[in-house]
Amino acid sequence: MWFLVGGVDDLLVDLIYGARCLHLATFCRIRASHVISMPDTGIPPGRIVVFVAAWDEARVIGRMLHTALARFAHEDYRIYVGTYPNDPATIAAVADVAEADPRVRLVIGSAPGPTTKADCLNALWRALLRDEVAEGFTTLGIALHDAEDIVHPQELAVYARWLRHCATVQLPVIPLPHPRSRFVAGHYCDEFAEAHGKVLVVRQALGAGLPLAGVGCAIRRDMLGAIAAARGGAPFDATSLTEDYELGLTIGAMGGRVCLARVAESPGGPPVAVRAYFPDTPAAAIRQKARWLTGIALAGWDRTGWRATLHPGDHWMRMRDRRATLALPVLAIAYATLLLWSASALLHLLDRSAMPALSSAVRALLWTNFALLLWLLLVRAAFVQRAYGWREALWSAPRVLVGNYIALFAARRAIALYVRILFGAAPRWDKTDHQFPDLPQATP
């Protein structure tokens, strides 16, 4: 029954997406010309500031910064990198780049790490405020990136245009296929292709709050300042494990417009997007997804709730976000059932006896779920094909099993993390080890 509910839920999202594409073709593939034609809201131009929170990132942060400096095609920007006093290797890596290029600003927090990513971002916010007063520059928006991200050359220009009429802009996030992890890292490719190609589009169509991905997004300076004023000076909630998810919902609740920007880098070309390697081992993927589940589906439920004033689309989308808590019991029971049915069929085959017949209602339910599963696989393959080509699309079906395996153990770990939080444990930055590909731009 739960598979039926989930399948119908996904089918409704697909139908809404199809309807929007059919009647509003420009909605799904917004062009840069539409941005230019929109009326100017009077927001003055200014610097784009990039925040990068870095804990234990000495392996990748130097190459990420060199690549960003070589790629960003924008006149006025600065990169603020947040580090911790007990992480000298990362401090040294950032300092080497900052010494050679004034567009990189090293910020060392006061508290030893790891705290939370939001706490590190708050240290960067305070540094930006000091610099604005000391240097007298104007900030248009603050972009967020992680230490393993491969930035797009045009993204700052997209932010500069879109922030004139949006409070926040989110670019698509496209995971890189990992050469040594077709299944574990590959299942992220499938999930993000569908999430950022379809689900976020539907959320925006419904008028629901649009959560941020924490990378490839930019918030207008005045909006972030308003959030900081409402929170006593800190725009990022340091007690949250998924501050990016909550930040997008907070901006929407405050009346800010959160926009998903699917802008082609050239006519008919791929979108301006952020690319990065995602975890390539089961243990790392389970750890990362457990943090997401804890912050969104468990602790996030406590923090953001089900306010009666929410838009109906918000209720539905938050329910979808939180249905992941059912993954552990439902998937465990489902796979146990498959094993038991297989064992039963084998025993009946050896005994040369017939298996008991299923009722017509159960047969109808199973066939319905099977049809919904086939539809889910076809839709996912279509979005993966659009982002990565037909070879990766063929691998998307078997990777569903890998995703379910990771979801099972991530849900178990998330419940344990949530219980510790309920008993007073402070949230900690349970980050994964990051990788950065070897790129020609990665060296000065």
Number of helices: 15
Question: Regions with pLDDT < 50 over 5+ consecutive residues?
Answer: 26-40
* Strand residues, percent: 5-15%
Alpha-beta classification: alpha/beta
Overall shape: globular
In round numbers, the mean pLDDT is 89
How would you characterize the largest beta sheet? 7 strands, mixed
Q: What's the multimeric state?
A: single chain
Query: How far from one another are the termini?
Result: 57 Å
Across the major sheet, the strand order is 3-2-1-4-7-5-8
**Rounded radius of gyration (Å):** 23 Å
The level of helicity is 55-70%
Order of helix and strand elements from N to C terminus: HHHEHEHEHEHEEHEHHEEHHHHH
Strand segment tally: 9
Describe this protein's structure.
With 444 residues, the protein is an alpha/beta fold. 56% of the residues lie in helices and 9% in strands. The protein contains 15 helices and nine strands. The protein has helices at 2-23, 25-28, 32-37, 61-71, 88-100, 117-135, 155-162, 184-206, 221-230, 243-253, 282-304, 312-322, 327-351, 360-388, 390-422; strands spanning 47-53, 77-83, 104-108, 139-145, 168-170, 173-175, 217-220, 258-260, 274-276. The strands form two sheets. Strands 3-2-1-4-7-5-8 form a seven-stranded mixed sheet, sandwiched between helices. Strands 6-9 form a two-stranded parallel ribbon. Helix 1 packs across helix 8, helix 4 (61-71) packs parallel to helix 5 and helix 13 crosses helix 15 (390-422). The longest helix is centred in the C-terminal third of the chain and has 33 residues, at 390-422. It is globular and about 85 Å long. Residues 26-40 have low confidence and may be disordered.
